[in-house]
Write a structure and sequence with these properties.
This protein is mainly alpha-helical and 334 residues long. Helix content is 52%, strand content 7%. Strands 1-2-3 form a three-stranded parallel sheet. The chain is globular. This is Tryptophan--tRNA ligase.
Length: 334
């Protein structure tokens, strides 16, 4: 059976890149086999968080996933911390991983370099083992990942194989699901089109939030960086030499279901391209925003869905954890 697992942190809000690159395809794929999607609130603790804000953002993220189209009848949606087996298995995997492996993780090196490794939280260092536990608990066969998470998935595979070799066949070794060309668009910053659109950017002018008002979306896209080329073929899909224009074409194509190179043939001037892109994004986000407002007004329903999701997820996670604990030699509680 195909079993899919993916998660998203409840920090900083979801932007257009998250939606076009991941969330929209979770919705499309949720009926392929068994699908588990979680709001990974424990991962958000690797940096200092305001408790009230974290609780609010966790529910808001779950609400957004439902608004985007995740159907609790078709998939299992839950909050990571509601299933205690995640942290329990993480410890077994910490005792399987090596310091060298974790030190090589690019995200740890990059984030620790900003604030100094001595000041970095231990959770930032061991984050990949918790991510591995998230995946292995559900015996996921496929994990949708972007390039920035591929290294963590490779570690997950290595840990699963090592554990299985030492203690017996407990874990399913997952495969990465890399979006094919034209699917899972990589959306770049509107102001710095050579870097990925990100919640952590210094300015929000390069990022379109999923709840940005139409006028805000229009303004940000109108101010998007292009170039000074004004020739007859200025609007063309050429990420290497025209990254700003290529990014707008990628956004327009992803929002309308087209191909960036083909979409480019319909425009001669940047102004026309920007106007069409803004209109397409506004229309794409309109139903998601409307559904979110409906769900936001009924938090009890969202909480009920999350409780039901955790109740479905925990028996699956508990069975895997029990097998792992028995295999590694821990004395059964009963």
């Amino acid at each position: 059976m195909t079993r899919i697992l993916s998660g998203i942190q409840p920090t900083g809000g979801v932007h257009l890149g998250n939606y076009l690159g991941a969330v929209r395809y979770w919705v499309e794929d949720q009926r392929i086999g068994e699908s588990f999607y979680c709001v990974v609130d424990l991962h958000a603790l690797t940096i200092p968080r305001d408790p009230a804000e974290l609780r609010q953002e966790t529910r808001a993220m779950a609400t957004l996933l439902l608004a985007a189209g995740l159907d609790p009848e078709a998939c299992t949606l839950f909050v990571q911390s509601h299933v205690p087996q995640h942290t329990q298995l993480s410890w077994l995997l910490e005792c399987t991983a090596s310091m060298g492996e974790l030190r090589r993780m690019t995200q740890f090196k990059d984030k620790a370099a900003k604030g100094g490794e001595e000041a970095a939280r231990v959770g930032l260092f061991t984050y990949p083992t918790l991510m591995a536990a998230d995946i292995l608990l559900y015996r996921a066969t496929h994990v949708p990942v972007g390039e920035d998470q591929r290294q963590h998935l490779e570690l997950t595979r290595d840990l699963a194989e090592r554990f299985n070799t030492r203690y017996g066949p407990v874990f399913t070794v997952p495969e990465a699901t890399i979006p094919p060309p034209g699917r899972g668009a990589r959306i770049m910053d509107l102001q710095e089109p050579t870097r990925k659109m990100s919640k952590s950017a210094e300015s929000d002018q390069g990022m379109i939030g999923l709840f940005d008002e139409p006028k805000v979306v229009e303004r940000k896209i109108k101010r998007a960086v292009t170039d000074t080329d004004d020739g007859p073929d200025a609007v063309r899909f050429d990420p290497d030499t025209k990254p700003g224009v290529a990014n707008l074409l990628q956004i327009l194509a992803a929002a309308t279901g087209g191909d960036p190179a083909e979409v480019a043939t319909g425009y001669r001037r940047y102004g026309e391209l920007k106007a069409a892109t803004a209109e397409a994004v506004i229309e794409l986000l309109r139903p998601v925003q409307a559904r979110y407002r409906e769900l936001e007004a009924d938090p009890a329903t969202v909480d009920k869905i999350l409780r039901a999701g955790a109740e479905r997820a925990e028996p699956v996670a508990a069975a895997t954890l029990a097998r792992a604990m028995d295999a590694i030699g821990l004395l059964p509680a009963r």
